[in-house]
Amino acid sequence: MQRVKWIVAMMLLVGNLLYADSAKEIDRGANEALKQFNREVKGAMAFVQNDVKALLIFPSIVKAGIGIGGEYGEGVLRINGKSKYYYSTASASVGLQFGVQEKSMIIAFMTQRALEQFLDSDGWEIGVDGSVALVDLGGGKSITSKTINEPIVAFVFGNKGLMYNLTIEGSKFSKIAR
Question: Which residue has the higher pLDDT, 5 or 129?
Answer without folding.
Answer: 129
